[in-house]
Amino acid sequence: MTTIRDVAKQAGVSPATVSRVVNGLVGYSDETRKRVEDAVLRLNYEPDSLARTLKTRQTSVIGLLAPMVSDALASQVMRGVEDAAREHGYAVMLGRTGLKSAYIAGYLRTLRTYRAAGVILISAVITHDMRQLLGPAIPIISVAISDKSGSPSVAINDELAAYDATRYLLKLGHRRIGLLAGDPVSIFVARPRRRGYERAMAEAGCSPVIAEGTFFYESGAPGLEELLRQEPELTAVFAMSDEMGAAVVNELQKRGRRVPEDVSVLGFDNTSTSQHVHPPLSTIAQPLEDMGQMAVKKLLRSRDLGPRIMPHRLIERGSTAAPRAGSQRQHQVSPAEQKQSPRSTT
Amino acid sequence: MTTIRDVAKQAGVSPATVSRVVNGLVGYSDETRKRVEDAVLRLNYEPDSLARTLKTRQTSVIGLLAPMVSDALASQVMRGVEDAAREHGYAVMLGRTGLKSAYIAGYLRTLRTYRAAGVILISAVITHDMRQLLGPAIPIISVAISDKSGSPSVAINDELAAYDATRYLLKLGHRRIGLLAGDPVSIFVARPRRRGYERAMAEAGCSPVIAEGTFFYESGAPGLEELLRQEPELTAVFAMSDEMGAAVVNELQKRGRRVPEDVSVLGFDNTSTSQHVHPPLSTIAQPLEDMGQMAVKKLLRSRDLGPRIMPHRLIERGSTAAPRAGSQRQHQVSPAEQKQSPRSTT
DNA sequence: TTGTAAGCGTTATCAT
DNA sequence: ATGATAACGCTTACAA
């Protein structure tokens, strides 16, 4: 390993001068700059980040904590984070937390001793303990969680997104719309999304039909079962994750119901799963990659605190349509229902 | 930030003694150990990894380089790596390379200056340049690539896996089996898998039918189109990725052919995608998570070089079956065809 | 058993 | 414009 001293010797100058040249500071002649640069090239010198960080206290690693590194949502966010980090010259340190606070604490400690420039937390809320553990020098930001506490965060408005989604189904003419939700204590977004659904249903004078799943594919079929038990005449299902939505599509078809002719299905997240089912899932898209990028940008802008709301959008694919004429009376569309979030088609 | 000196002062000993206690070395009385431990607790002292590494030259970070952090295969491997790394007290530094050698080089440099304990490369072959860049002190290992060069690696035998897969379809009675492959220069596993398919087909006296896709879902439909153009009487399709396999299932159904009654479909990798289609895909499973874990273990066992072959296995789900009687003559099973890889059902 | 001091590779301060 | 020199926080001979 070649050090700054080697370069200094080779160039016939002091280490201090080499440091100045390498860091583009002032205080050397063109002549010496040239000599130093030559030496750097010849010896293939690369400054040691560790030593540099030890001295300057400024580092170039960003911590990224995800409950699972292998689920589609986290993967997308990770991708955005990784790209933005590289672009700004930062390295990413990855931790899989499984949402276990002991794991999170462990990573936070590690990140502190590595003097991380900041920490990004996917799908988890920032607690007081976490802030404590990191110390005041290291900022932390959450991604993909609507956080009411005012901590730095990048997320969509989950309540509004679910509201818009439900409104969309109502507008198509559906009245009996089942919600495939999730456990609100382990899955933080489940609560606001449920509120959004309930609000839209209440405004339309429809009664809610709700079952809870795990957000994983496997829980889709039992979830549908439960919804149908509560309301056999269901004409639409709004699933809080694409995985559950995909499972519902497959399960409906297995039961001999056509999608979307008999039952419409709407997913959430616009992960690749939504395209792997036939017909492809209509879904609510979160700009996950953008959210990851935004998170590092906020982290790096010294004090850009507070929550940042990103736009969601409805993507219409083949899994949603108006209910069959006659299957129930048509829903009357009121003027107020025209204002909706922007919507696009893929 | 509290340093070793603070603790020393608090405990009334020298920094050296604190270091000894903290690192569990010998050379102090029970009495002082107690005093030091108290001070550590009271001051909430945490040794600085950076300074420690600078001195000892041994680090606790493992570099993990993946072409995409958001595809299902890499995610699974990452998960295994992450788990094993944590278990051994290592942190994971993540890099997304897109297989661009410039990106890889950049990360390798970073990892060198961070004195990484080792580097894990997903879905890419280790080149001489990479080894050069890392220097002799840092080992590197590839995962999910059959590497003939003898560099450290953890992978399945892709040739054999594809051979077994094809044999399985032959044994079911299929003769006209299409292969949905991939570009062998950008997707390294495409070549051995193709060889395995060709060998099995040749042994059975069947002529190969091959189309190239990208391994992504989108390429499944055009790939099937091409296969059918070459051989309209196809009764089975072997896709080199689950994504392509899932697309083929959907596309076949769209064209009014039933799976598996009219056409069988076999995927590869056993990613979650294989379960998100109906009927669920039969597929070749790689133990991706195990492979990730194995990679860090090999890295950490000082000099456990060379390639490590992991077992693949065939998972039978609903997308494969014998061809319809009469659609073609039954294939005669020879005794040699009985020896097959272990196989399980999910 | 314990302390002193040197040094890991930098950068920053202060002379010159 | 350049060079000594002293940190950064830790480990490790070596000495006591």
Would you give an account of this structure?
- By secondary structure, the first copy, chain A, is an alpha/beta fold.
- Chain A folds into 2 domains: 61-152, 3-Layer(aba) Sandwich (Rossmann fold), CATH 3.40.50; 158-287 and 312-338, 3-Layer(aba) Sandwich (Rossmann fold).
- Chain A contains 12 helices and 13 strands.
- In chain A, strands 7-6-8-9-10-12-13 form a 7-stranded mixed sheet, sandwiched between helices.
- In chain A, strand 8 (236-239), helix 11 and strand 9 (264-269) form a beta-alpha-beta unit.
- In chain A, helix 5 (72-87) crosses helix 12 (288-300), helix 6 runs parallel beside helix 7 (128-134) and helix 8 packs parallel to helix 9 (190-203).
- The longest helix of chain A is centred in the first third of the chain and has 16 residues, at 72-87.
- Chains A and B meet through helix 4, helix 5, strand 2, helix 6 and helix 11 of A and helix 4, helix 5, strand 2, helix 6 and helix 11 of B.
- Chain A binds a DNA duplex (16 and 16 nucleotides) through helix 2 and helix 4.
